[in-house]
Amino acid sequence: MSLYNLEHEFNLISALIYDPDKLDEFEITVDDFYDARNQRVFKGIVWALQHNKKPDLVLLQDVCKLQPDYWTHIQPMTAANIQFYVESVLKLAQLRNLDAVGKTVQDQLKAGKDPGEIRETLEAGLTRVSTKRTKQIAHIRDLLGAALEKIEHSYNNKGKLPGIPTGFQQLDFLTGGLQDGEFIIVGARPSIGKTAFALAMSRAAAGAGYPVGFFSLEQSQSPTRMLAAETCINIVNMRTGYLQNRDFSRLVDGCNKLANLDIYFDHYSYKLSDILSQSRRLVRMGCKVLFIDYLTLIQYGESGMRTFERVGEISHSLKRVARELNVPLVALSQLNREAEGKRPTLAELRMSGEIEQDADMVIFLHRPRKAETYETVVDVAKQRNGPVEDFQVMFEPGFTKFTDMGVA
Question: Is residue 301 a contact partner of residue 309, using CB atoms and an 8 Å limit?
Answer without folding.
Answer: yes
